[in-house]
Amino acid sequence: MSHYSAFRIHRDDQGHHAGIETLPKPEPAAGEVLIRVSHSSVNYKDALAGTGKGKILRTFPLVGGIDAAGRVERSNHPDFQPGDAVIATGWGMSFDHDGGYAEILCVPGDWLVPLPDGLDAASAMILGTAGFTAALAVQRMLTNGQRPELGPILVNGASGGVGSMAIAIFARLGYEVVAISGKPPLREWLAGLGASRILDRDALAAATRPLEPAQWGGAIDNVGGDLLARITRTMAPGGNIAAIGLAGGHEFHASVMPFILRGVSLLGCNSVDIPAPPRAELWRHLASDWRPAQLETMVTETIGLEGLPEVFERMLAGQTHGRILVTPSLLGDPRSGV
279's torsion region: left (phi>0), alpha (psi -120 to 50) or beta? Predict the structure, then answer.
């Protein structure tokens, strides 16, 4: 096959537009690996890039998709051989380099992680960047002394990819997990992932003083803005907050009192350019002791490339939950379930 299908994003004199195109198969340069992609996934960042509603891409035109899993077809990198199963997430994919929404992906071999025992390509992409980011947050919190006896872990943005993965991983590790969600129909689903309680989105609205009664031993924040500030005021002494997202705003207006008087730690999590050794270690955890017990149930849809635009719009409108798999060769109903 000398050509392949890809979901390509443009910004030109016609404005923003994106769709499926047929592209010539590239020849891997020195240090690069050519992969036949079997699975990808949809992340919030992908929806922003694909619709043009977020300034994600630096280069145009570009193939979207920050995740990919598949097998090596050709390799000019000493660590990978044809037939090897690999994972690609983050780095420059769908930023300044073509991404995983394609049948073929050519990337530097240094960006790749061998698929660990315990995962296949589909399960790796159910995890994807969402699971990897949640694992990074868990690792940072554990390294900084997070323990079950400090109190429950609060997770906001709980129905999204990172939030749902964080619930499942912490529950697997024996922590009590409390979810914040603005989607009442998903309470049973969140409980099935391991959340012991589900709070409404405005549950912390009254937390306005610099210090409020301590409620949480730790927190994973996918929202930022005012909600993150309220979480800081309700943390237990020695608790950790892993900051992952900013759907509620990038500004953060808070008091230093929780950090000084209670020793609260705010841990930033950037999963894009984690070096290869710690990246591989996190994937090994996700394949074994941190693997969500309900991983397969976290998939809510499987789509082909043609289903991406409609899913992007629903995701940005808050009408999706869990993980959405993408199989680049899948044709047919763009909302087919698994």
Answer: alpha
For every residue of 75-129, DSSP letters joined together read: E-STT--TT-EEEEESTTBTTTB--SSBSEEEEEGGGEEEPPTT--HHHHHHHHH
pLDDT greater than 90 at residue 310: yes
Global pTM reads: 0.94
Residues 125 and 67: their CA atoms lie apart, in Å, by 7
**H or E segment and range at residue 311:** helix 308-316
Distance CA 179, CA 299 (A): 19
Is the separation of the CB atoms in 221 and 227 below 8 Å? yes
Distance (Å) of CA 299 to CA 98, 178, 191: 25, 21, 16
CATH of 3-115+294-326, one of 3.90.180.10, 1.10.730.10, 1.10.760.10, 1.10.3120.10: 3.90.180.10
CA distance 237 to 259: 9
Give the model's pLDDT for residue 334.
37
Decide which of 2.60.120.10, 3.40.1350.10, 3.40.47.10, 3.40.50.720 is the CATH code for 130-268.
3.40.50.720
- The string of pLDDT tens digits covering residues 251-276 is 999 999 999 999 999 999 999 999 99
CA dihedral 147, 148, 151, 155 (to 10 degrees): 90
